[in-house]
Design goal:
The protein is mainly alpha-helical and 113 residues long. The protein has 2 domains: 3-75, Orthogonal Bundle (Arc Repressor Mutant, subunit A); 81-113, no CATH class. It contains 5 helices and 3 strands, in the order H-E-H-E-E-H-H-H. Strands 1-3-2 form a 3-stranded antiparallel sheet. The longest helix has 12 residues, at 84-95. The chain is elongated, with a radius of gyration of 19 Å. The N and C termini lie far apart (39 Å).
Length: 113
């Protein structure tokens, strides 16, 4: 994983840096492929490291700093533009109902257009 991807994953956002930042941690240990990247992020002030302990099976826990959040927002690519149909379907997914998409369209379709 690259630096940007690790920061995005740590915050729980997608590859475009979008979504609710519902977490702030990345757990990895020495010898893993991601550990050197996290240590690089620490050196650049993008993450802070908490040394591993018995609770984390001796793996380190990394947290994204404000500088890291800024890095994510400034370096994440722009999300692709969605068509009207794609935006409507996205609203259906966000509605979180027990309706099928067809039922949802019949019920809320005019509002979603």
């Amino acid at each position: 994983m690259g630096l940007l991807h690790i920061l995005q994953h740590s915050l729980g956002v997608d590859q475009y840096g979008q979504g609710e930042q519902y977490r702030n941690y990345f757990v990895t240990g020495e010898g893993s492929l991601d550990h050197p990247t996290c240590m690089e992020a620490v050196r650049h002030g993008l993450m802070v490291r908490r040394a591993g302990n018995a609770l984390t099976d001796e793996m380190d826990v990394f947290h994204v700093t404000e500088a890291g959040r800024t890095y994510v927002s400034e370096n994440s690519p722009a999300a692709p533009k969605l068509t009207a149909s794609q935006r409507r379907y996205q609203r259906f997914l966000e509605h979180d109902s027990d309706l099928s998409f067809g039922e949802w369209l019949r019920t809320y379709g005019r509002e979603a257009a």
